Amino acid sequence: MHAYRSQTCGALRPADAGKEVRLSGWVHRKRDHGGLLFIDLRDNYGLTQIVIAPSSPAFAAAEKVRAESVIRIDGKVVERTAETVNANLPTGGIEVQASALEVLGAAEELPLPVFGEPDYPEDIRLKFRFLDLRREKLHRSILLRSQVIASLRRRMIDQGFVEFQTPILTASSPEGARDFLVPSRIHPGKFYALPQAPQQFKQLLMVAGFDRYFQIAPCFRDEDARADRSPGEFYQLDFEMSFVTQEDVFNAIEPVLAGVFEEFGDGKPVTKAGTFPRIPYAEAIAKYGSDKPDLRNPLILQDVSEHFRGGGFGVFARILEKPKTAVWAIPAPGGGSRAFADRMNSWAQGEGQPGLGYIFWREGEEGGAGPIAKNIGAEKANAIREQLGLEVGDAAFFVAGDPSVFYKFAGQARNKVADELNLSDKEQFKFCWIVDFPMYEWSEDEKKIDFSHNPFSMPNYDHAAFLGLDPNDKDTILGITAFQYDIVCNGVELSSGAIRNHKPEIMIKAFEIAGYGREVVEEKFGGMLNAFRYGAPPHGGSAPGVDRIVMLLAGVENIREVIVFPFNQQAQDLMMNAPGEVTPKQLKELHIRVVETKS
Length: 599
Description:
By secondary structure, the chain is an alpha+beta fold. Helix content is 30%, strand content 22%. The chain contains 17 helices and 21 strands. The strands form 5 sheets. Strands 6-9-10-21-20-19-16-11 form an 8-stranded mixed β-sheet. A 5-stranded mixed β-barrel has the order 1-2-3-5-4. It has a 4-stranded antiparallel β-sheet with strand order 12-13-15-14, with helices on both faces. A hairpin with a 2-residue loop joins β19 (484-489) and β20. α4 packs across α16 (546-554).
């Protein structure tokens, strides 16, 4: 027999009754039932119940063994009686009567429990991540991650993509987030950077003629943590294609994503490949208050400014006298009560807003209820109700001002209303593309035009006219869109992508408009520009985030629940004590001196 196991802890079934077996694993739980000891023995594959009678040679050792100790047992498989079968366990039809037990790795007192998975402080969970990973839910999520990556890889290869690995040590570039810098020992005073993304390399692969590239790429950004973003490193399904339009990119990746969600989504409906809606950025902002809308939420924001212009409700009327202002409505089917209206108003104040105007309609009340309805009169209140497609028993909430300032709050209110009234079908995965992003935006802090998204994107603008643009023609420039697109699922942005700007003169002009001189572009992106000067195909791609895909499929809201060894929110690895100090010798080799900052 094998030194440690003849089967795994998830393998035995009633058909194995009568066999002599050897199992190894962790003591998941130990119970004393009237003299008989029961041990639930766990490994990566499952759990088997072990029974140790007082007469067994294994009994003395079993009495002493602690939870999470690693043991080996020998014993006989016995089919359980009908009343003791555990239908919730794959091995629940059998148990193993132990005849021998050896402790392979004794466990000390645990700093956090594994059995039962109670809530526990995250700093302890991360410090003892090796124990945390034994817990069933987290263990299952990490295994799911591996399976999802394998499926993504297989599906990309089936689509004709070829996997390449791009460099981890590269040059620093102004791509948006902060770089992680690596000092060079043999080039004093110079630094490598860990790649924020393989952006330039994957484009160079297209110039090199490889046509369809992908990799499960590690990316590094020195940025703050969020629930859906891990500080430090993350992984993405990075891909690029040559001789493609935007639609070609969509047609290539939709079957991959839809297929993975169908495979691992527990039977929940998934938007079919080839049917992902294409929503222009401006439309997404106007309808959903977000460029990553959750389409499970059926509510649509609407502009109701004309009902308030010129009088009636003085606050809104005065706001509308200013340029670029509007009043937007959030419909609330089934929300027609003062209690709900007051609750939403209190929520808005908790979000730092002055409040949330409302009208609600109820039986026997002409024109609607609430202060706004009383001020604008029955005719206008009914007109708003008709525009929004609402009925008696419904409500509407209002946000007013400059939409570029308030749209995010309007989007939050839309989601809050839907959640409070249970209007969203959460048991599905709804995808969409957000397209036609603005190429540029106005930076109020710097009083200049800057890129709003990916600086390597091809402008959706006549090329000859683009080359002739006056960088001071603010209105024209801010109206230019780009061949940029995001994939969104259930309100989570999975990736950004673009058809790339592969023409050197257009790229230099694009950066010039954003305030970067030719010399800066040549210095920072010279490798790619030079490559383009030797014949570059039209190309484009995207990079769906692996961590976020798994997060959605696992049904968790914290991205650290799908990463094996994550940093905490302060970008620290509590288990390995990183970042840590290094020796003076190491610093000297790197030509670096640490300067202490004054507190």
